[in-house]
Amino acid sequence: MHRTVRRAVIIGNGFAGAENQCYGLIRALGLFNRHSFYRVRRPKDGISKWLNWLPVSTHKRLDQLKRQLYDRQFIFSGHGQKAAARLDQSDIQEADAQLIATNASENFEKDGPLLVVASGRDTISVASSIKRLAPHHVFNIQIQHPRSHLNRFDLVISPCHDYYPLTPEGKKHIPWFLRMWITPRQPPGRNVVLTLAALHQVDSAAVQSAASAWHDELASLLRPLLVINIGGPIRHCRYGADLARELTASLINVLPTCGSVRISFSRRTPKQVSEIVVREFHNHPKVYIWDGEDPNPHMGHLAWADAFVITADSVSMLSEACSTGKPVYVIGAERCTWKFAYFQKCLQERGIVRPFTGKENISETWIYPPLRDTAEAAEHVIEALAGRGWKLHT
Asked: Is the pTM of this model over 0.85?
């Protein structure tokens, strides 16, 4: 008897990049309007922000102990309870494995199996616990490599660069005495789906909708339209004012070949980077700099841009831009290390991206197969469900 999957649960970790991947997969599976969203939260106040290296369960127990001591200290004033109440306020439900698993089992006959999609290190224990508590009623998918015990998941969707430690190049960078601690240690198994880039929500329907929504503002701009997305430094791709100066110099060189330029910063962009760019171009007639106020033009830019320049730190922004089939230039790739350098190398070797040098003619283009990682991952999910005798609601 075929069971139909009509509902999904997303387990988020509070990071937009990870949660966007879950939403992208759910959207590609046609379950976007049939999902519930939960989040695994880490304590963030005081010393807690320095304890993110701990397992989230241990982190929470330590925070609970700290709060108990704090509440006792202020028991007569009530300040401790008020502070804790403020910290607990949120419109998003906390991910409770027992509650979600019970719901999946109790509603199985009426609603069919529950699809659980999670992404990020902090979600691993919750997502795997749901599967353990309701093994016959749940199909769980972990996006990004969970490091160990992959058999806890029905499907793992992992970018190829998560397996960089197993490549000959990756092994050269790992001292022999650390190799037993670096994951993954085994090649991908049968329940692993490899992607080149990150999953996302940018499909043809989303682009068409954005093109319509932003028509009045963007359609009349002089062409070609160059969109520049600036992220922020991360551990394996560090930069600062030096990259901002390189970007502004290169952009000045290519401006004669552009009709219009639109620049966006992310929440991670350092002030020293944005200030250099704004100071150079805020009065330039061809250049518009988004001020960070809603509405966010990101989807409109994806729909209407003729080419992109993107800083190398953002796997998410690169993945979305590379799904459009339009020219994508990357700045700062040489600053990337470890698996992020491998990701940049893979994109360049496939002819999907090119380095931004300041010598480009933006009116020129090149052709490459747009990335279809999200759609292909969804196809693997459907195939895996069929192997269980389950199918998606259509």
From this structure: yes
Q: Vertex 291, ends 290 and 294: CA angle to 5°?
A: 90
Three-state DSSP class for 217? helix
| Contacts with 110 (C-beta within 8 Å, 6 or more apart), sequence order | none
| Helices 315-322/338-349 angle, 10° precision | 10
Question: Higher pLDDT residue, 27 or 42?
Answer: 27
User: Which token pair is 387?
Assistant: 């192997």
Residue 47: predicted pLDDT:
66
289-296 own/partner pairs: CB under 8 Å, 24+ apart: 289/262, 289/263, 289/264, 290/262, 290/263, 290/264, 290/265, 292/265
The residue written with tokens 């992208």 in the block is 24
Nearest-10 crossing angle of helices 56-73, 79-88: 150
DSSP state letter for 257: G
Q: Is-contact 263 228, C-beta < 8 A?
A: yes
Rounded to the nearest 5°, which phi and psi values hold at 219? -65, -30
Give yes or no for a cis peptide into 285 (omega within 30° of 0).
no
Give dist(CA 7, CA 112) in Å, integer: 8
**Centroid of chain to Cα 118:** 12
Q: What does the alpha-carbon distance between residue 324 and residue 368 come to, in Å, rounded to a whole number?
A: 10
**What's the pLDDT tens digit per position in 201-211?**
999 999 999 99
- Both structure tokens of 183: 């994951």
Helix, strand, coil: what percent of the chain each, to 5? 45, 20, 35
pLDDT confidence bin for 39, thresholds 50/70/90: very high
Residue 116: beta bridge partners? 9, 140
